Amino acid sequence: MTETTDTAGLGIAASIAAAHKDVPGGLLPALHGIQDALGYVPPDAVPLVAEQFNLSRAEVHGVVSYYHHFRSAPAGRLLVQVCRAEACKAMGADALLQHAEQRLGCGVHGTSADGQYSLEPVFCLGLCASSPSIAINDEVHARITPALFDEIVGEARQAS
User: Fold this and answer.
1) Is the pTM of this model over 0.85?
2) How would residue 77 be classed by pLDDT, with cut points 50, 70 and 90?
3) Burial per residue of 108-136, b for 16 or more beta-carbon CB atoms within 10 angstroms, e otherwise
């Protein structure tokens, strides 16, 4: 067992996997459920999930690593998502993402060394008419400039 996964977390993961094992196509809903409950899909949970679905560990790991939505480590205290859909890209999302990487001190799909921030791309936050947009811990913000990004992140950090 890794130091980040406790016995209770593994029990939760096993219970969620067991609840989905007989559902056709139940692997993805099970992994979503585990991430929703624990904040990530712990590597130690992969063998438990594999056993429930009668799959190899490699198959389950392949699904977790293929989909960018799944994390195999806890996210930072602030999950910063930058929209990468076409409307946001047309309005400067690529430059905004570069700015975010510099300000937060981590790359895309990464977490800052202090554990404060995780940075993820998302494909549409539903604010296409007000692009570019971001979300911080599921709170969406529109018409984001680098200066506004810094302000919003600073406020979120103080509030957390």
Assistant:
1) no
2) very high
3) eebbbeeebbbbbebeebebbebbbbbbb
